[in-house]
Amino acid sequence: MKTVNTFLKSITLFFANRVRHTHNIKYVLAIVALFLIQIIFINSCKADNRIANYTDYKVEGEIEHVCKLFSLDSVGIMIRYMSFMFDRPDYKNLTAYVIPNGNNNYTIFLKKDMDENIKTVITHEMIHVFQFYSMKLEWISFTEMKYNGKLINCQKVRYENRPWEREAFILTERINELACLK
Ligand SMILES: [Zn+2]
Q: Alpha-carbon Rg of the chain, whole angstroms?
């Protein structure tokens, strides 16, 4: 989608240059037509996001919903079962986590047979995707994250006090409230 847009913009620029040099009405009309095509194209184009779900959880709807809410585009989401559990005590009740794989690709790991509401869990993880996507959150290692440019050691800051978690909980709550209003 972005490539087509860039292409349309560059030919518009080409015609704009032509108008400057030749003052030909044909080029003016071409620019107007190109602008119209761009407007129609942008409005009719759905965001180019890919979802590869390797679990039995039906989470595609929630993923698309969050993508739309936060205007996530050209994002790849892979859903897998957790293959290992962290042995740290504060990770004992971990039901899901997300890892950025670069180039706007993310893998969300979900616990098999979880008791929690899967829709809430996936919305929470998608907020983390949005945080990574907007570069608000940066993955440094399994124990270190950068939030708003500030390095945070996860071994020193408890899960519930981590700013990206607080934000994810607040936003998930708001999204659920909005869904209830529908
Ligand atoms: Zn979280």
A: 22
